[in-house]
Design a protein that fits this description.
alpha+beta
Length: about 140
């Protein structure tokens, strides 16, 4: 019997708009998958506190679009902290540093992310759902 130290796949879906992201989140939940949605809104509301503090719903939500492109005083100065919090959350998935940096760049440019941890044999199904929901990119990390 093989016993692999790494028994999960991480599937990452990147979306350009909230409607497609929400549809994917709903479809994944209906199919029985737990996911984490990353978008700037929650991170912006809770700077410095990116870890769960109690019972957590299906996934913490973090939402771009909350930070305007034009500088508005303190909001722009919070952006590096928000991106840093996002990178910290990605590190929890044990993704390589170069992958985290690439995803942080997409996040900075208002990308919306869904990450799903699943068994390798279920990864293909997750990827299909994300593509059907118009993810602009779908990546698998084993």
């Amino acid at each position: 019997m093989k016993n692999s130290a790494k028994t999960e796949s991480i599937i990452v879906g990147i979306f350009d708009n909230a409607q497609d992201l929400n549809l994917a989140d709903e479809r994944l939940a209906a199919a029985g998958f737990e996911d984490t949605v990353f978008d700037e809104a929650i991170v912006a509301e809770e700077p410095g506190n990116v870890g769960p503090v109690g019972p957590v719903p299906v996934g913490p939500v973090l939402a771009p679009g909350a930070v305007p492109v034009e500088p508005l005083g303190g909001v722009e100065s919070d952006l590096p902290g928000i991106v840093g919090a996002f990178k910290s959350r990605l590190a929890d998935y044990h993704l390589p540093d170069d992958v985290i940096e690439a995803y942080a760049t997409a996040f900075y440019h208002k990308g919306k992310f869904i990450l799903v941890r699943t068994e390798p044999e279920c990864a293909k199904h997750v990827m299909e759902i994300l593509r059907e929901c118009r993810a602009s990119r779908v990546n698998r990390h084993d």
